[in-house]
Amino acid sequence: MSDEILTPTENNQQSGYPAEASREMMEAGVFYGRKKSKTNPKMKQFVLGNRGGIELINLKKSEELVQEAAAFVKEKVKNGALVLLVGTAAGSEEGIKKIAEKFKLPYVTMRWVGGAITNFGNISKRVEHMVKLRTDIASGALGKYTKKERLEMEREMERLTILMGGLENMPRTPDVMIVVDPILHKTAVAEAIVKKIPIVALANVDANPDDIDYLVPGNDKAKRSIEWFLGKMEEAIDEGIKEKARAVAAAAAAAPAVEAPKAEIAKA
Question: CATH says 3-117+173-251 is which class?
């Protein structure tokens, strides 16, 4: 690949690489697209050029769109939205789980359970069953069962934990879904579309932009590129939570003090 494309220069604004973010994004490999033959024609608007048969993503647009996506996520979280994080590929699993555990959010890092959104009622019952099994096993409440029965229950709990463990913090259908690689998670995306849940996604040039509400064009396979995207989402969620807390505190401070009933004042 040509150095004029891959090395930050004074002409980055013309080349499509924003000077402020180009080094971080380029070092993370955000700009690597797919082969031209795999590129969705609707994603051509995000392609800067082609080198060695590989499409190069326009980082200027990636930077602009990740800022829009982050602003959206921040505002939704500020207003109490529940965010679901989805990323089952090896490069995204660690980052997704880290953010989910930090903010106590639901997540999927193993495989998408069909109906997790569109059949939420039944799935939530399975999650409740998983939690009860875990509690009963830990408390010794299964002592009344035979050894074989206890073993079967433990195996069921382990299986459910692998499949649905990340959904424990999902008391209702999510208000926002953040996805790494929407093509890999087409079932999750389809369910979110059915339920009209806004989708924020890191997507390469083979994706269909019509499926994504807030699309961030970028390499959705490389771990460092995924970390770059998830880092922006983590910051947005964190800022949204802090702004919500500040708003609640301000509202409480501005609320008029509750006066004691006159009868109580007279007794004093």
Answer: alpha beta
